[in-house]
Amino acid sequence: MSAMRLFGFGRRPMPRVRDGADGDAAAGAARTAAAFHSAYGADPAGVWWAPHTVPLVGDHVGGGDARVLSAALPWGASAALAPADDGVVDIRSARSPRRPVRFGARRTPGSAPRWAVAADAAVRAALGADAGARVLLDIGPFGLAPEVAAACAVLLAATEVRSGVDAVADRDGLARTARLALDSPSASADPAAALCAARSRAFFLDPRRGRGRLLPLPLDETGLRLLVIDTRTALPDRLAASLRDECARAAAALGVASLRDVDDLAGALAALDDPVLRRRVRHAATETHRANALAGLLRAGATAEAGPVLNASHLSLRDSLADACPRPDTAADTAVRKGARGARMTGSGRLAVALVPTGRLEAVRGGVLDAFAGHRWDPPGFGIAVPSEGARRTL
Fold first, then answer.
1. Could you tell me if 67 and 286 are in contact, meaning their C-beta atoms sit under 8 angstroms apart?
2. Which residues contact 203 (CB under 8 A, 6 or more apart)?
3. Strand partners, 80
């Protein structure tokens, strides 16, 4: 079976089934290069691509240094780039190639989208503060943080243009540079996961060390797929900020640097009177254990046993968020009832991800569509994937 199929996205007509993540990346590169030529009247120096990533376990909302186990998806950001000598970074999207966002060395547009700001920062990190460039970005679906994939693709492009292909081999170094360009990425969408990913591998990140390691996730060999469900909702910014503040308050009350440092959960819960902070601590501490447990299962080659860890993570996150995310919650619950080995919503409140036997994919997808229709919600988007390769040049 193919590495990727994309099913009905929103209210649009169901697209054709697209086979082969690598083939799609090549076709996407050609489209991006053609769009660049149409926008700028010249060819780019090349086209580079970085994947979106999805957290499988570990993203516990408010824990910026949480250990997160993620997988790269076959959808991401494609960047065509050419250097310029005018000190202006002109960035356009494939959807609106006639609407440039222009950055000067000392001027930032007031209403620039986050992905454009990230791309400009990546250009200047690689080429210098006074550099100029022409960039066209094509950002694909399922991006929890599209600015991360955009920054990684542009950073890879600008680094290779300036210093040659050998310079992009140091992926840990590129990840450090990308974090600086992004200012404060979350652990659940860290640039290292996109830059260091490999096919049929998960990436286990430890933000405190600033690096991670690849673990086997051979879904092709086990007859399983990741079903990514985009509910097109998200935690409101105010709620996300409140969650981060509550985690910080709980850590301060317990005298630890981070909730991942809680070793005695029972003692920590007894020391807190606030029921909200207790929920935050319970989820963060147990999620750390689940991330370590899933990493251990993958190291042991027990991919098929990962489902219960996803289920436990989902229930814990749902309880922590007090039912603030009904759509991804419904998607994950329905997926398990219809045959998924395990499923969870992500901490962003937008995506759900399920581990599904290939023979149950249509049943799970149909069940989720029926559940959403029953609530009179817009239908979600679906993507079926195995872990993808990391950021690379595609043209």
1. no
2. 53, 69, 70, 71, 72, 192, 193, 196, 197, 212, 213, 214, 215
3. 47, 136
Instruction: Give the closest residue to 120 by CA, choosing from 166, 88, 72, 164.
Output: 88
Do 77 and 70 form a contact (C-beta atoms < 8 A)?
Answer: no
In whole angstroms, give the CA distance from residue 257 to residue 19: 46
Instruction: Judge whether 152 and 121 are in contact, CB under 8 Å.
Output: no
Is the full-model pTM beyond 0.85?
yes
Residue 85 CB coordination number (10 Å): 8
The phi and psi torsions of 144 (rounded to 5 degrees) equal -65, -35
Task: Dig out the tokens for 346 from the structure.
Answer: 């992500």
Identity of the amino acid at 197: A
The burial of 276, by beta-carbon neighbours within 10 Å (0-12 exposed, 13-18 middle, 19 or more buried), is given as: middle
Active-site pick, 190, 230, 329, 333: 190
Q: How many residues does the chain have?
A: 395
Q: Where are the domains of the chain?
A: 19-217, 226-385
The yes-or-no answer on residue 190 being catalytic is yes
| Amino acid in the structure at residue 103 | F
Residue 353 amino acid letter: V
Is residue 279 within 8 A of residue 251, CB to CB? The reply is: no
Sequence letter at residue 252: A
DSSP element (H, E) containing 291: helix 275-299
212-249 pLDDT, tens per residue? 999 999 999 999 999 999 998 888 888 888 888 999 99
Q: Calculate the alpha carbon distances from 376 to 2, 155, 168, 327 in Å.
A: 32, 42, 47, 11
Residue 219 exposed, middle or buried by CB count within 10 Å (0-12, 13-18, 19+) = buried
Asked whether the predicted pLDDT for residue 7 surpasses 50, the reply is: no
Cα–Cα distance measured from residue 66 to residue 212, given in angstroms and rounded to the nearest whole number: 12
3-state SS assignment for residue 242? helix
Lowest average pLDDT, out of 104-113, 184-193, 230-239, 384-393, goes to 184-193
Residue written as token pair 């970085």: 50
Check: CB of residue 341 under 8 Å from CB of residue 364: no
- CATH number for the region 226-385 comes to 3.30.70.890
Domain 19-217 = CATH 3.30.250.10: no
Decide: helix, strand or coil at residue 312: helix
Residues whose CB is less than 8 angstroms from the CB of residue 383 and which lie 6 or more positions away in sequence, other chains included? 4, 5, 6, 7, 73, 74, 75, 141, 142, 227, 228, 230
